[in-house]
Backbone:
């Protein structure tokens, strides 16, 4: 009798386990279905909407995401973050956003963070970002923004090779990688380049001062020739610019997203575009 009861109890436990597994898989399917429906509705509402020509993104929260997901080494987040950029660029191309600038690492990041973490991030840039942008299937022309002299030789060479390989295949989509970047240094370097250009042309300081305009300085920024960003998205919940595109983002709309970069979903992206489309831009007025 005891054996029969034990067998029956085992059968009940197995049945409960199967029902729980079925229920769990059913809930996963339901969440996936609801997400897909919601994403399609968001996308449809953006048809004909005013969308940014130039989107800038601060890809923040890679390490915190890795800790949240239970990884022992938070540096794993850099790989997921680098791979996720490829997916997000696909969303941008789908929406017809032809200019994208992403903030990868600042000069301070390169100098102040642990050498092992910086080395890991640079490997991800080489193995994932530079490699994928170099593929013939990529529609993006790569531009480099920042002090390349603070990068490891291998990272600098990989990015330059990727930039050179994307010139011929320019399909009207431009990606600026801000790495070894500092917004104040960019402005200083732009003014220095302008002064050097004028000096080589034989113009005096008085001549330069007389003809100096904001547009002339902008021509010498890393993004010279491209439109200023219309929308800046920062992930991870931080509400600050961290020196990113100080000149170019003077009149940009800002959107702060509370998810970490590797967890930045398509619906988060579409919500940011919806928020932008609903705003009335004033450009300082």
Residues:
């Amino acid at each position: 009798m005891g054996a029969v009861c034990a067998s029956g109890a085992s059968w009940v436990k197995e049945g409960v386990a199967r029902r729980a597994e079925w229920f769990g898989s059913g809930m996963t399917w339901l969440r996936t279905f609801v997400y897909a429906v919601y994403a399609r509705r968001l996308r449809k509402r953006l048809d004909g909407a005013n969308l940014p020509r130039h989107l800038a993104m601060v890809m923040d929260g890679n390490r915190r995401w890795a800790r949240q997901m239970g990884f022992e080494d938070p540096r794993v987040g850099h790989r997921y973050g680098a791979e996720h950029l490829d997916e997000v660029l696909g969303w941008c191309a789908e929406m017809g956003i032809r200019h994208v600038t992403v903030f990868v690492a600042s000069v301070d990041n390169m100098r102040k963070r642990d050498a092992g973490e910086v080395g890991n991030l640079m490997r991800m840039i080489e193995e994932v970002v530079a490699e994928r942008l170099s593929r013939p299937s990529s529609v993006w022309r790569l531009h480099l923004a920042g002090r390349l002299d603070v990068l490891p030789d291998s990272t600098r060479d990989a990015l330059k090779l990727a930039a050179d390989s994307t010139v011929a295949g320019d399909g009207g989509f431009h990606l600026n990688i801000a790495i070894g970047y500092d917004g104040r240094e960019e402005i200083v370097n732009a003014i220095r380049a302008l002064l050097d250009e004028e000096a080589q042309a034989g113009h005096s300081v008085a001549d330069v001062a007389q003809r100096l305009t904001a547009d002339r300085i902008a021509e010498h920024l890393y993004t010279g020739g491209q439109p200023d960003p219309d929308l800046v998205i920062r992930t991870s919940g931080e509400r600050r610019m961290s020196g990113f595109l100080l000149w170019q983002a003077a009149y940009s709309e800002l959107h702060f997203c509370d998810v970490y970069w590797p967890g930045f979903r398509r619906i988060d992206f579409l919500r940011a575009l919806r928020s932008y489309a609903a705003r009335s831009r004033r450009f300082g007025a």
Notes: The longest strand covers residues 173-181. Residues 126 and 157 are 9 Å apart (CA to CA). The chain has a mean pLDDT of 89. Strands lie at 54-58, 99-106, 140-145, 173-181, 231-234, 253-256.
